[in-house]
Amino acid sequence: MLGLMQSQPLSISALLRHAARHHGTCEIVSKTVEGDLHRYTWSEAERRCRRLARALQGLGISAGDRVGTLAWNGYRHLEVYYAAPGMAAICHTINPRLHPDDIAYIVNHAGDAVLFAETSFTGLIEAIAPHIAGTVRAVVMMTDPAHMPVLPLPAGMKLLCYDTLIDGSDDDYAWPSFDENTASALCYTSGTTGRPKGVLYSHRSTLLHAYAANLADALALRAIDRVLPVVPMFHVNAWGVPYAAAMSGASLVMPGRHLDGPSLETLMNQERVTVTAGVPTVWMGLLQHLRGSGTRLDTVKRIITGGSACPPLLIEAFGREYGIPVEHAWGMTEISPIGTYNRPKPAHEALDEAGVFQLALKQGRILPGLDMKIVDGEDRELPWDGVAFGDLKIRGPWVTSGYYGDPPGSAVDAGGWFMTGDVATIDPNGMMEITDRSKDVIKSGGEWISSITLENIAVSHPDVVEAAVIAARHPKWDERPLLLVVPKPGATVTPESVLALYEGKVAKWWLPDEILVVDALPHTATGKLQKTALRSTYQDYYLTKLS
Ligand code: ADP
Q1: Contacts for 150 with CB less than 8 Å, ≥ 6 apart
Q2: pTM here?
């Protein structure tokens, strides 16, 4: 027997209508490419989204069509975020930091019909335009007529101005209702292993993710919050913040392309930001600026970090020096992206300060709706003892089942489990801790060594800004850890002083065999350490040395 409750399909336009109707005066503040601040409300945003939907119709966009974006966090990007899915089309956010060849590949693979781009990407578009002319019919520059760039495009590809399009469109559009499993957004992984792969979200997965993300033990956004997503909207939907904010009626403060410490501090203080979310590299830049300038964050109550392991120093410094807790979340493009969030359980109430700090380093416990497990090489589940580490698998309604263009179910095993590519422990309280990417773990004499643990210790050195541990091949042990450290500008770091930090913290056989002091480390387009590049340079370091 079926229940007798109403069954409106879950839809992204309902989120926007909710924000406009019930939190209509809450603000969306955006730092534009031109450097000024634009401000309006959720209610005005909804009206402009209706105009944009009409404009998209005018460009021939209909249900299922892909609408590409090359844009920073700002109000026009937010409008495409809502207008395209609202009319059953798909908002395809593209990471502009990828190599132009990858961007052209992604646009063609997605089959984007229209590309919305900020003026800062004019040169990039000019370079890739000839390679995407088979699919892209129009490029819409996200600016006003006064700032339209000169951009020669191939024959048949139109150049349009965003504000002109909006101003010339009616706002009489009525958001349609359709199946909640309809695709809503598309985001490609950064392709650290081969070509980028597309993850295709649905209205249902997006709404369920937003509900779970907004629980009190996760992002917990409130109507009184002013949220600044530093994490880009082109990187896994800015961790779902644009949707979660509309759901709770929170105000959004969008930093545009200005992600350096001084710009963030000014924006946070001026706009009375209460919550912010981003990757550790950004928080490191902010911390250095605060320490250097003597400024403080007057209104920020929480900093959410994710995307890569959070260096202990960040949690310690923001907590002790500024009284701001750093909350750790974990996820990935394939999980919409939030999978776990670190908030305490009753078992943690008795922890002393050191215990609380150790706990904060963990990536957290699963969001309700998802499930996770760790398995060994034979897919046998490992115990939740906080010690055993194995491949982390996850499943649930906001986890991908197959990549764009592949059949449903092709990315998961028979039980519906998705292999994350991360290696983790889970403790008896269900707290998960990432110990490595499976391709980065060091396999020494049949035992595993966590590169992240070794890196975290290295960056606790007062003169080290960044560290990377890679598995270098070894004639006796198969692989041994090789540590590379980058000193602070003007500082000198000796390998001995770094090695001394490991004393009593890890088993002797975990110690890096060698420590190299280097000027810089390579990064991916999403700001993570590019270990593939390091491996190709250094993987034979010990073999060459010992032969
Ligand atoms: P990509 O895999 O293309 O770099 P994602 O943003 O999807 O892009 O990255 C997901 C990966 O980032 C995870 O599988 C994990 O390795 C890493 N990651 C995300 N959050 C954390 C975290 N809090 N701690 C450690 N690693 C993290």
Answers
A1: none
A2: 0.90
